[in-house]
Design goal:
With 473 residues, the protein is of the alpha/beta class. The protein has 2 domains: 300 residues, Rossmann fold, CATH 3.40.50.1820; 140 residues, 2,3-Dihydroxybiphenyl 1,2-Dioxygenase, domain 1. The chain contains 17 helices and 16 strands. The strands form 2 sheets. The chain has an 8-stranded mixed beta sheet with strand order 1-2-4-3-5-6-7-8, with helices on both faces. An 8-stranded mixed beta sheet has the order 10-11-12-9-13-16-15-14. The chain starts with 16 loop residues before the first strand and ends in a 17-residue tail after the last strand.
Length: 473
């Protein structure tokens, strides 16, 4: 009999699996398109890295280096040797994987369910490492004064599993004596408990996701995160997840989720003051990257368009330089427009009429700086007040409106050398090279018509400093 072909999204061997043992256990992870913009995707419960199977290829093709681990005690990863499976332990594991194992100084992170608290903790425990964050259908800190009027509690009957796994983990594990029983238990979370939008998961889909939970020791270890919510001894250390979280965050919400807060989107807008969205995804529930893979991938690509603009994509014909040989100095790349405006609210309203997505930001900055969410392949667009423009370009005339055309250059040294060459050719410098507070090396020159042209290196966390106080503008 001829074998039946397995659909790519249901093939357990679709991606090469690597392992890291720097934290005393073997952690399994997928890594696609090395050399791209580092993107860490963190699964929740009852999930494994397989929940991202539908989006890995498209994200890698867009230019990301996609890293998808199994958390300790899940899937192909071993349980934690210290017995801890709480948020802080997962956070430290993943930071070690991305920095010590893979050599990344900064990266983008994304997570939902348990992965949501993990990435929130990681962003605050290691802020120098996290460029930005994507959060979807995730537990959040509760802010009483801002959330008292919101619907912040799911139906009580939807939380029975949480109490049982957190307070009777051993007894529950002992009741599930066979692999089939354990998998049937997990299957209810993809079906009859209505975490997902009705009809999203076929029987084959469910079988694919529950297969790794047939191992009794792994299932028991996965209850550890719930135990840590009730018992202090189940925590390796306190989590640092808190509100407000200043990390720039894209918020996605599958509202068909019957286990999460009904107004997760409104709560997230409070927790993450520098947010893009929240975006509600039609006919989508708890398992966002599986239920709405196109929406998830395209949103992440747009959110990181400025980072992707300076990295070759996986399908690019431009070869990556060998680590053993220094790369030639790259030509400057047009990648940003800073529009300096006199009336921020009017400017935002105008560009929104053109379909530009411009999110609100921290109230102190609303009148002085707004980021647009770039479309794939487009340049970044920022709106700045004239008073703020004088802070990043000392030669910007007070009260002037206009545009600064931004070019990304290959290195910090390139900013200095290119600025010097342009000035030597007879053009005016508006701002000499300096280490800007956002971590880049930056300079501004003027073209023959007097248009400001910015020269900017990549951001380096070692050079990040405090931003100016907007109340002083």
């Amino acid at each position: 009999m001829a074998s039946v072909a397995v659909a790519p999204h249901l093939d357990p061997s679709r991606f090469t699996v690597h392992t890291c043992d720097r934290r005393g256990f073997r952690q399994a992870y997928v890594r696609e398109n090395p050399g791209g913009v580092p993107l860490l995707l963190v699964h929740g419960w009852p999930e494994t890295k397989r929940i991202y199977w539908k989006v890995i290829d498209s994200l890698a093709a867009a230019g990301f280096e996609v890293v998808v681990p199994d958390l300790r005690g899940f899937g192909q990863s071993e349980a934690g040797p210290d017995g801890f499976h709480d948020v802080a332990a997962h956070s430290r594991d993943l930071h070690t994987l991305m920095t010590d194992e893979l050599g990344h100084s900064t990266f983008v992170i994304a997570g939902g369910d348990l992965g949501g608290p993990v990435v929130q903790d990681l962003s605050l425990r290691f802020p120098q490492s996290v460029d930005r964050m994507v959060v979807f259908n995730s537990p959040l800190p509760y802010v009483r004064e801002s959330m008292a009027s919101m619907r912040t509690r799911p139906a009580p009957e939807a939380s029975d599993y949480f109490r049982r796994q957190g307070t009777e983990a051993d007894a529950l594990a002992a009741e599930l004596t066979t692999a089939a029983q354990r998998q049937r238990y997990i299957a209810t979370f993809y079906s009859s408990r209505f975490w997902a939008h009705p009809g999203t998961f076929s029987l084959d889909d469910v079988a694919f996701h529950v297969a790794p939970f047939g191992d009794g020791s792994k299932l028991r270890a996965s209850f550890g995160a719930y135990e840590s919510s009730f018992v202090a001894t189940a925590r390796s250390e306190p989590t640092v997840m808190a509100a407000p979280n200043p990390t720039r965050t894209l918020v996605l919400f599958g509202p068909s989720d019957h286990v999460l807060y009904p107004e997760f989107d409104k709560m997230a807008a409070v927790v993450f003051p520098d947010h893009v969205g929240p975006f509600l995804l039609r006919d989508c529930g708890h398992f966002v990257p599986w239920e709405a893979p196109h929406a998830f991938a395209s949103a992440v690509i747009s959110f990181c368009g400025d980072l992707l603009a300076v990295r070759p994509s996986a399908s690019s014909a431009i070869p990556l330089p060998s680590p053993a040989a220094p790369a030639a100095t790259a030509a400057p790349v047009l990648d940003q427009l800073n529009v300096v405006v006199s009336d921020m609210d009017a400017a935002v309203a105008f560009y929104r009429l053109l379909g530009v997505v411009i999110a609100d930001t921290h109230p102190d900055w609303m009148a002085h700086h707004r980021n647009a969410t770039p479309s794939p392949g487009s340049v970044a667009l920022d709106l700045d007040s004239s008073s703020f423009a004088t802070r990043w370009s000392s030669g910007w005339p007070v009260g002037r409106t206009g545009v600064t055309v931004g070019f990304r250059v290959g290195s910090r040294a390139d900013v200095d050398s290119l600025h010097a060459a342009i000035v030597a050719a007879g053009y005016r410098s508006q701002q000499s090279p300096y280490d800007a507070f956002w971590g880049a090396r930056y300079a501004v020159v003027e073209d023959p018509a007097g248009t400001a042209v910015g020269l900017m290196s990549a951001r380096d966390p070692a050079f990040v400093g405090p931003p100016p106080d907007p109340s002083s503008f």
